[in-house]
Amino acid sequence: CYIIRSKLGYLKLFELSNYTYTYFFPNTNCNNKILISNVVTRESVTMEKPFIRSSIELNEKQLEKLKTVMRYKVEIHGKDSFPTIEVELHKLIKCVRRKLSENNINLKYVKMNGGAASYVLADEDFLYADLDLIFALNFSKPETFDKVKTSVFDALIEMMPRTINKNNLHEDILKDIYISKMVKVDEKDKWSLFSLYNNVGKCIELKFVDNMHRQFEFSVDSFQITLDSMLIGDKIEKCNDKVIAESMYGDIDLALYHLNNGLIETRSPEEIRGGGLLKYCYLLCRGNKATEDCKKLEKYMCSRFFIDFPDVQSQQLKLIQYVDNHFNDVDENIFSYLDILYQVILNSTVCLMVYDRKVTLSMIKNLKNYYKYSYGMSAKGYCEHNPQSKIMYIPNNGTANYWIAVE
């Protein structure tokens, strides 16, 4: 990557050959990028040390999209006869933040991550499946984990409809009704996660983070938008303060280029729990295209996935959880997703014995047949898929190949 100085200003250089340079010019007044290709010679340009931005200020269009997301009415579906909690996103954040304060937890900042953040920054609108919120705090005291859990459940109780008798509700009930997954990591990395149950494939996750070494899987999901200036007062519309977005990938311009051009890119997938394999196949299912460098990393994604989930039971559990969080019960894309996962594992797995790979591939086939049956029955109204909550703890800095149940 180089910077070319020209009459237009500074042009970022992406691809080099003997005769042709392909580059784009970042317009500093907006996020739109002018793609330019031209034939130049090495003598006609001045090579300088590249300037890489890791953050940007949201422009007017992006700010309006963020306000729309913040006004979005989140649905947290209750199991059995419990009601659905419906609340605007900014009110949910404020409620959780207030409960943390009531439990004497100092919050550093709140950020939006995942598909919602990518949606805000993208040039074109798209349907996003995951809405992740990061609450930065200090986990130096062991009891903080319990205080965070209490704060989340207190917030859920407060947001429940007023018609519900809340006097007899406690954590054991709520974690089975409104929480699809809870994770606690307390090693070098310190963080906890609460995935709120949503049966239409809109994954809502609350992440409470002290330290997390790897904060992204792919460049297109590496964006984090600081929300604190949006949380002042009751009206989102009145917010005209500066809002900053950053990319954990490092180069936010390159990450935005990948996002707006449907490219899949990552680095060191062996550092990601599960290798990013399930997310990689999900991005392919959505029509994104892996770069040549990323395709070469498929074997590392598969290897890390099978290290973290060494037996077919844990593989199936993880896969079902991922499908539950990213697809609804009548989404035909589930079948395409499982087909893509099948092919990637078939073609890129080098760490398994032939028999073990066949067992995993057979599990994926059987799971696809199960979802086909569930899809057919749901369309006729005969049955409904009802995933169960799993509360787990990952030892050894989140890299162990086993889970411990959190009671």
TrEMBL record:
<dbReference type="GO" id="GO:1990817">
    <property type="term" value="F:poly(A) RNA polymerase activity"/>
</dbReference>
<keyword id="KW-0808">Transferase</keyword>
<dbReference type="InterPro" id="IPR012937">
    <property type="entry name" value="TET5"/>
</dbReference>
<dbReference type="GO" id="GO:0048255">
    <property type="term" value="P:mRNA stabilization"/>
</dbReference>
<dbReference type="Pfam" id="PF07984">
    <property type="entry name" value="NTP_transf_7"/>
</dbReference>
<protein>
    <recommendedName>
        <fullName>polynucleotide adenylyltransferase</fullName>
        <ecNumber>2.7.7.19</ecNumber>
    </recommendedName>
</protein>
<dbReference type="GO" id="GO:0003723">
    <property type="term" value="F:RNA binding"/>
</dbReference>
<comment type="similarity">
    <text>Belongs to the TENT family.</text>
</comment>
